[in-house]
Amino acid sequence: MKRRLSAGNYLVLLCAFAFFVVPMIAAIEFSLRGDQGTTHGLSNYRWILAQEGFGANLFTSARLAAITAILVLLLMVPTIVYLHLGGARWKRIIEFICLVPLVVPVISYAMGVATAMPIFLQSTVYELSFLYVIVTMPYTYRALDVGLSSIPLLTLVEASKSAGATMRQTLVLVVMPSIRSAINGAIFLSVALALGEFTLAVLLHWDTFPTWINNVAQSNVLGAVSLSVFSLVGAWLVVLVVAVGPKSKHSDQNQEA
Amino acid sequence: MSHVVAERTNALNKGAGPLSYIRRGGALVSLLPLIPFLAFIGYFLAFPLAFIVRDSFLDNDKHFTLHNFALCFQGVYGHSFLVSVRLSVISAFIGAVAGAFIAHSIMRTGQRTRRAVAATSSVLANTGGVPLAFMFIASFGAQGLVTKLLKFLGWDLYGGSFTLFSAAGVTFVYCFFQIPLMVLIFSPALENMKPEWREASDSLGGTPFTYFRRIAIPVLFPAFLSTSLLLFANAFSAYATARAMTSGTLPLMPLLIGNLVDGNVIANEKHLGHALAVCMIGVSVIVMTIYALVLRYSKVKK
Amino acid sequence: MSNQHGISVNLQGVTKTYGTVVALNNFNLDIAPGELVALLGPSGCGKTTALRILAGLDTQHSGQILVDGKDIVGVPANKRNMGMVFQAYSLFPTMTVLENIAYGMRVRHISKEKQVARANELLELVGLQETGKRLSHQLSGGQQQRVALARALAIEPSVLLLDEPLSALDAQVRTQLRDEIKRIQTEVGTTTLFVTHDQEEAMAIADRVGVMRHGVLEQCASPQAVYLNPINVSVAKFVGAMNLLPAVVTTNNELEIYGQSVGWRNPDGLTARSGRALVRPEQLLLGSPTTDRPANAIVTNQTFLGPLTRISAKVMSDGNTLHVEMPSIEASDYPIGKNVVVTIQATSVLLDA
């Protein structure tokens, strides 16, 4: 049964709403200001689009995100499936290893990478993907592990094998479709990280969309704010649509037993 | 669910099932399918970490020394360590308290509202970074709309010593991702509070206060404490927002390390950076270990 | 420790709506001191609402609630002194079993020694002496419900309220705990209201069973009376299995079913002259067919139920399938495919028009 909100609840929610929404509105207002701060318009957004590197860097970040997601799936799905089958005795230790990036601050990791492999990281920006796989590993491991725990994996694999499928066919045709939502979750996590990651990119001297925003800000704060608003509000709207979506049949029902 | 997993593991241990051949050769053979993963981890995680840990104990002549760590707690570095800890504690505390209140209030709204809040929180908690910094510059900076509005209302934000680019300002901005993170992680704990507990307490003669003190607080405290620790670690290692806001001028541990990575390294400070990075890891490991212990010894089991 | 005298409970004209849904419609229920009444009905019939209103966890829109003759409307839940057992998950997870049981005494500031003594006494009553130091997640579902019962009894409640306390348990534990609740309730003598959707459970445990539908108490009587003399068609259909047989009212005001005359009751004030008669499986007998009668049937299935066997037979004249229950030792006389004649052995059946 849905309880009614008290005055205190409303006060808290109102304050929270103000704290989170007022800066957003103020930033939107700021991003719409004209040259002298007297007029409003889309001039800053037009300015962004005209900037050299906008499309290129956005494209770079998108490619990075895609490569990261593919690497995550290639590396993590077979590994975790194996941990749920024949390799169960290694599950605890692998689980622990996957949590290590959570306790290593990205800044320390950046330091380590910069000193340990200076040559490797100088050929192409897409090598950042390998590092992003490490940084997202605690989250992607968890998403996939929960997904695999919720299906009768051994039975499915045995059924597929007895029907004559190879292990690779089993993975692609049986296992992956049955944990689709977990895989979507892992992809979503790695894409979100790769699109927004700043620390590793800037410290290893690569240009991605987030570092480009930072560079743009040096010459035009208005432009940087517009870009920030654009990316924050954009990400928020996408997630909101995905999460809330159309009104589902089962939502908002009061049940009485 | 757990007994299904146990059954499955049992079946495997007895050597049943089509995959039993994998184990026939013993432990080492069963590691073979994990080689790609272990190689990846080894090269991209263990190798860099081992590298900085080793270098943090070396002087410029590659001799063993503890001097680097001694330097970490002196002068500008010791100061930045304190500033970082203070900033993290304060922002974790504000985030935890405000987030807990918000999560509690949201519990009573409809399902769609709750989902929208969860989605918003996950965006705000994760995509902070550079855009967040500029959003605050735009609204609370000297020319920002909020600043102008407050001035119109008679409060000159910049009349005193406040600037958005100080430790206080950065703490304030961090709340913008700390509070949503708290809401995100603490809400499930609140959702696990059974209405039956409140009703049982009422029917047994308990007042709302006894319910709060005897049941709600003991049940929620481990989740509250552990999430607060998570918020601390989160603020302690945050880099992007602080750097974008202050261009790396604020004395914060991550910013100092960033400057050292970035080049401009004075020769004798080369290994100091490694030591600082290791210290950061150390603090984080301590905090996260307490986090894990709190969760393990909490009496409430899922 | 027992509450020998018990306390009477009267709910009078209680009405409660959720939005447009009427949960209780002018609901009346009287429970005698020390009596155990079970409210039985499908989900959504308002039985839980009645219990929660009595507990003070919900408020009614109108009506009176008298406990021991005193109106308790407006008294908050924590002042009503009623012990409540919930469906599941109601034990406080951070407290041990003993602390859970002592909770009600603790909030009443009863001395620590008395708390411990009485909690142990109750633990023994529910047969869990060994578990006092454990936490709720270390107990089985059945044990958790025993502790919940002990906790509810610890405050010497004026009324014990049980809200589907067995429905989350396995079948075997369910019957065992059901009998135990009955034993304990008889022993302490506390007036008890028990809510369930399981008719077998209600029949087994209650002094009186109250059958509810659409927020109204349709019949409240002993289990035997509810089963043998249901007050109307809806009660008859809800409690126990029923055959629906085509029937016509004859001129001398009897029912004619498959050519047989049967006595009937008309509590619903029917004016219709035909409909379907409600006959229980054990009120039908099978025999060998003699001539071509409308009650001739052929056995289509046998279901072995232990001491009884349910035989399904298809009536030749209209194709209806009837269910007949008989002692299993007699059932071998009626194998599948055998031709039989169905005889109705009932004196006061109900008609559903």
Secondary structure: number of strands of chain C: 20
The succession of helices and strands of chain A, N to C, reads: HHHHHHHHHHHH
Write the CATH fold name of the domain at 54-210 in chain A.
Answer: MetI-like fold
What is the strand arrangement across the widest sheet of chain C?
6-7-8-3-9-10
Task: Report the span from N to C terminus of chain A.
Answer: 10 Å
- Structurally, the number of domains of chain C stands at 2
Assigned CATH class of the largest domain in chain C: Alpha Beta
Query: Any idea what the radius of gyration of chain C is?
Result: 24 Å
Structure description:
The complex is a heterotrimer of chains A (257), B (302) and C (353). Chain A is mainly alpha-helical and 257 residues long. Chain A has a domain at 54-210: MetI-like fold, CATH 1.10.3720. Helices cover 74% and strands 0% of the residues of chain A. Chain A contains twelve helices and no strands. In chain A, helix 11 (209-219) packs antiparallel against helix 12. Residues 247-257 of chain A have low confidence and may be disordered. Chain B folds into two domains: 1-56, no CATH class; 71-297, MetI-like (MetI-like fold), CATH 1.10.3720.10. Helix content of chain B is 74%, strand content 0%. Chain B contains 14 helices and no strands. Chain C has 353 residues and is an alpha+beta fold. Chain C has two domains: 9-234, Rossmann fold; 241-352, OB fold (Dihydrolipoamide Acetyltransferase, E2P), CATH 2.40.50. Chain C has helices at 47-55, 97-107, 112-125, 141-154, 171-188, 199-205, 223-228, 233-238, 328-331; strands at 9-18, 21-31, 36-40, 62-67, 70-71, 82-85, 159-163, 191-196, 208-213, 216-221, 243-249, 255-257, 260-262, 274-279, 284-287, 296-304, 308-315, 321-327, 339-344, 350-352. In chain C, strand 11 (243-249) and strand 12 (255-257) form a beta hairpin. In chain C, helix 2 (97-107) crosses helix 3 (112-125), helix 2 (97-107) packs parallel to helix 4 and helix 3 packs across helix 4. The longest helix of chain C is centred in the middle third of the chain and has 18 residues, at 171-188. Chain C starts with 8 loop residues before the first strand and ends with a strand. At the A-B interface, helix 1, helix 3, helix 4, helix 5 and helix 6 of A face helix 1, helix 2, helix 3, helix 5 and helix 6 of B.
